[in-house]
Design goal:
Layout lengths: L4 E3 L31 H10 L12 H5 L8 E4 L19 H10 L7 H11 L5 E5 L6 H12 L9 E4 L3 H14 L7 E4 L20 E4 L1 H9 L10 E5 L1 H4 L6 H14 L4 E6 L4 H10 L3 E5 L10 E7 L3 H13 L7 E5 L3 H13 L4 E4 L5 H12 L5 E4 L12 E6 L14 H8 L9 E7 L2 H13 L5 E3 L5 H10 L4
Parallel strand pairs: 3-8, 3-9, 4-6, 4-7, 5-6, 7-8, 10-15, 10-16, 11-13, 11-14, 12-13, 14-15
Antiparallel strand pairs: 1-2, 2-9
Helix pairs in contact: 4-5, 5-6, 7-9
The protein binds one DNA strand of 7 nucleotides through helix 7.
GO biological process, one term: poly(A)+ mRNA export from nucleus
GO molecular function: ATP binding; hydrolase activity; mRNA binding; RNA helicase activity
Keywords: ATP-binding, Helicase, Hydrolase, Nucleotide-binding, RNA-binding
Length: 492
DNA sequence: AAAAAAT
């Protein structure tokens, strides 16, 4: 079948290898992964911080929080005769001047990241093949598909031409914000298709049809707009699935996603499908390759997936009270200058319980989960993104994709396990959760709370799966170990 | 069971 190459720092520096007669082409190209400093949002957030300690010190930011570019290997497999040349600059991509301006002026980007350099030519070069793309957390996948959508839209044609489906409302909104910023000078119109009011209020029947050129939203709303013919698919050129492995998983949104895909393909056979995620387990990978035909693909080995710049630790604790004590005394007490913190829990009840405990102890924490009404969810995310709150307790609603550069510490208060089989870790969720820290190669730390033998077993499986040992904090009762850990992670 | 969104 297809041939596989790895892009490594040692591989050739230009172009692709010669065509292999009649079969597949190789992609073998070296790309530096010097991530662009995302200064725009950072400066804004820093200005609005009300806790001095939360601010990233402008003078030391580069040394302290931005690690060396990772030397990650991405496996690329392409099909057909189309040659792709990695884009070392955004100019290589034949973008409109308006779009380039958005990248430089609004986004403050300087050059494509590794995944961008490789995937963008694949997305933008006719005959516009489908693409399955895996890349590390925080490596700039959003830019890939947002830029892909913007560049393929015909600005003169006022109808939906690009559609992006995301697993949560929050992620849809975040992606929309990126799109609007990047596309600011293009005049391209966009609309976010997510539920607006809490519950049972079907206004969509009485709304005008969508004329926006790019639509981003959640499966249910999109499905409904399509079945009510408010969202036409006739001119659709690109269909993006963000967090694609989850969107196509059986316990994810497989049914909705397939339905949307098929409805589009029924009217429009040449709509390009782009699948992006940091994780694709074997089951999903196999399924996905049946869903899309004649696609290019980019994959990362699971052992290469944990971020180098992220230090992971485990803390052995005797009981639940100790968990709360550790959060309070070992982390919140000395965490004042370690940036923002997300504490992940497995259930809404666990979230509320922890929230109550910490508030009773006098800490200002906020909590988000799917049972809150939409207005509250929006408010809590906004406050956190604006730097008004330091500590956020969350269920897996924010496990994927949530991008807040100032998050340097993630706590797994509960370890993620599979629902069907509680003694199996949920490896993908683990990776996504910890990926909320260490965005764009920044330094970060993860604390995993281990309370039972079962927890310990789960943790060990995670360590061996990703082949990345997780250091143990010697004693939960002493401050020292936590200080050492945070220093080691570069946060203190 | 987290989540989306509808029944």
């Amino acid at each position: 079948m297809a041939e596989v190459t790895e892009t490594t720092a040692a591989s050739s520096s230009e172009g692709q290898k010669p065509a292999v007669p009649e079969t597949k082409r190789l992609w073998s190209d070296e790309v530096d992964d010097e991530e662009v400093q995302p200064s725009a949002t950072e400066e804004k957030a820093v200005l609005e911080l009300n806790v001095d300690a939360l601010a990233i010190d402008e003078n030391t930011k580069v040394n302290k929080f931005l690690d060396e570019p990772e030397d990650s290997r991405i496996q690329a497999v392409t099909t057909g005769d189309t040659p792709y040349t990695s884009a070392s600059t955004f100019e290589d991509l034949n973008l409109s001047p308006e779009l380039l301006k958005g990248l430089y002026v609004e986004m403050k980007f300087q050059k494509p990241s590794k995944i961008q350099a490789i995937s963008l030519p694949m997305i933008m070069t006719p005959p516009y093949k489908d693409l399955i793309a895996q890349a590390h957390n925080g490596s700039g996948k959003t830019t890939c598909f947002v830029l892909g959508m913007l560049s393929r839209v015909d600005p003169k044609q006022q109808s939906p031409q690009a559609l992006c489906i995301c697993p949560t409302r929050e992620l849809s909104i975040q992606n929309m914000e990126v799109l609007q910023k990047m596309g600011k000078y293009t005049g391209i119109s966009s609309e976010c298709a997510v539920p607006i009011e809490s519950r049972n209020n079907d206004r969509s029947r009485y709304r005008p049809p969508i004329s926006a050129q790019v639509v981003i939203g959640t499966p249910g709303t999109i499905k409904r707009l399509m079945s009510q013919k408010k969202l036409g698919v006739n001119d659709m050129k690109v269909l993006v699935f963000d967090e694609a492995d989850h969107m196509l998983a059986k316990d994810g949104f497989q049914d909705d996603s397939l339905r949307i895909m098929k409805d589009i393909q029924r009217f429009n056979s040449h709509c390009q499908v782009l699948l992006f995620s940091a994780t694709f387990d074997e089951t999903v990978k196999n399924f996905v390759s049946k869903v899309v035909k004649d696609y290019n693909q980019l994959f990362v080995k699971k052992e290469d997936l944990s971020l180098e710049s992220l230090k992971q630790y485990k803390v052995i604790l005797p009981d639940e009270l100790a968990k709360i004590r550790v959060v309070k005394d070992r982390i919140l007490e000395l965490g004042e200058n370690i940036g923002q913190i997300i504490i992940f829990v497995n259930t809404k009840r666990s979230a509320s319980m922890l929230h109550t405990s910490l508030v009773e102890l006098g800490y200002e924490v906020t909590t988000i989960h799917g049972a809150l009404n939409l207005e509250d969810r929006d408010k809590i995310v906004k406050e956190f993104k604006d730097g008004l709150t330091q500590v956020l307790i969350s269920t897996d609603v924010l496990a994927r994709g949530f991008d807040q550069q100032q998050v340097n510490l993630v706590i797994n208060y509960d370890l993620p396990v599979k629902y069907e089989n509680q003694s199996e870790p949920h490896y993908e969720v683990y990776l996504h959760r910890i990926g909320r820290a260490g965005r764009f190669g920044r330094k970060g730390a993860v604390f995993n709370f281990i309370m039972t033998d079962h927890d310990l077993m789960i943790m060990r499986k995670i360590e061996s799966y990703f082949n990345s040992p997780v250091a143990e904090i010697p004693s939960w009762g002493s401050e020292e170990g936590f200080k050492v850990a945070l220093k080691e992670a570069g946060l203190l």
